[in-house]
Amino acid sequence: MQNLQNVICITDRHLCRKPFPEQMRIVAAHQPAAIVLRELDVMEDAYRTLVERVRPVCEEFGVPLIVHTFYETALALGIPKVKLHLEDLRTLPEDVRKQFEVIGTTVHSVEEAREAVSLGATFLTASLAAGNRDKYGEGNHLLDFLKEVSSAVDVPVYAMGGASREDLDSCLASGAAGLCMMSRLMTLDEGE
Predict the structure, then answer these.
(1) Could you tell me if residue 192 is inside a domain?
(2) Which residues lie closer than 8 Å to 26 by C-beta, 6 or more apart?
(3) Global pTM?
(4) What digits encode the pLDDT tens for the residues 109-137?
(5) Does residue 66 fall inside a structural domain?
(6) Is pLDDT above 80 for 44?
(7) Helix (H, G, I), strand (E, B) or coil at 152
(8) How far is CA 131 from CA 31, 90, 152, in A?
(9) N or C end: fewer C-beta atoms under 10 angstroms in the chain?
(10) CATH number of the domain that 32 lies in?
(11) Is the pLDDT reported for residue 139 higher than 70?
């Protein structure tokens, strides 16, 4: 697999065939745009331990680490990058929001995209996984959705769900900054 400069890695350590830190080293060596540590099954203390294991790998390879959900952990560890659920972004106090350089969230409509940017989001992941299937009909119409969202906001938009590395050029042509990948990167072998 070649350079991943337009790809955000979304983690799920349960998909890895190798120990998680080793898999993160393989992924980071491919220089993705960022790694979002999205481990939804852990409490904050365990999550902090995962951050402490992955952070040195990201720093070694110069890959931005984005903390998912646990913004207080991000602040405590001096990591100014976070990805929150839109509901959490809506309730994030302004004084806390200002402490982050990077804030991401997932959106399922153009309206949500505009709202997220107004709340301080600096990048978006756009997904049809919930909420917009009726508008776009049967099948994967993620590219149409990407085009609408990308033209509606002035922040980078990444495809989330339904796009693979082979779809990157199409996503970029739709105005997106790139795409998110999980499964393929969690099973990537060294030398690929």
Answers:
(1) no
(2) 18, 188, 189, 190
(3) 0.93
(4) 999 999 999 999 999 999 987 544 444 44
(5) yes
(6) yes
(7) helix
(8) 32, 18, 18
(9) C
(10) 3.20.20.70
(11) no
